[in-house]
Amino acid sequence: DADVTQTPRNRITKTGKRIMLECSQTKGHDRMYWYRQDPGLGLRLIYYSFDVKDINKGEISDGYSVSRQAQAKFSLSLESAIPNQTALYFCATSDRLAGDASSTDTQYFGPGTRLTVL
Amino acid sequence: LAKTTQPVSMDSYEGQEVNITCSHNNIATNDYITWYQQFPSQGPRFIIQGYKTKVTNEVASLFIPADRKSSTLSLPRVSLSDTAVYYCLVGDTSNFGNEKLTFGTGTRLTIIP
Question: pLDDT value at position A103?
Answer without folding.
Answer: 61
